Amino acid sequence: MPPRSARTSTEAPRLSLRAPSNLTRVDDPVLLDGEHREGELYARAVLDAADLAGITLQECLLQGVSLDGTELRGARFLECSFEDLFAPVFRASRTSWRETSLRGTRWGSAELYDSRFDAVHLDGGKLDFVNLRGARLTDVLISGCIIGELDLTGCTATRVALQDCTVGTLTLDGARLRDTDLRTSSFRTINGIDGLRGAIIDDAQLLLLAPFLAESMGLRVEA
């Protein structure tokens, strides 16, 4: 019988997301930095290279929107839905995301460092490089994504799950993980193996991680 203090289960992300409804469709939107927009639908809009730093979108739906090189530093996305978001360069450092879903996302380089994610679902995207250095992730589910490189250096993650994802390089230097479930996902390379403390993996992943764990401990494995 385990000690009373032992933890015997994993807490999954707590999500109860609802799609925005009763929206006003806005064609050819003109959005300004720092403004607050609520209850709007943007479909197939091209907002490339716009300066939208500090903007707040609340209960909005963005479908097929292009945000290549758009400045979103410090923006806030509250109870929003993003579908087929496209951005070879996604500039969104220090942003806040709350009760928001992203589906079919296509990002080349995503600058999301020092951002905050609370109750967010990222589903079915193809992402080349995701920079989440110093970010705070709480109740986040990433599912069915292909990610070239995921950088979680200095990240704090609580109740985070990667489900059925394929990740090329996972970087975890200085990461602080709690209830972070990596089962069912695959990784080609992991940097900062010490940052895995607090993660949950399966038996197959443990075998694949063995060489990295041995290297981090200075072990020599010889037949």
UniProtKB/TrEMBL annotation:
InterPro entries named in the record: 5peptide_repeat, Pentapeptide-BTB/POZ_domain
List, alphabetically, the Pfam families matched. Answer: Pentapeptide
Gene3D superfamilies in the record:
E3 ubiquitin-protein ligase SopA
Per its record, how is this protein called by name? Pentapeptide repeat-containing protein
Source organism (scientific name): Arthrobacter bussei
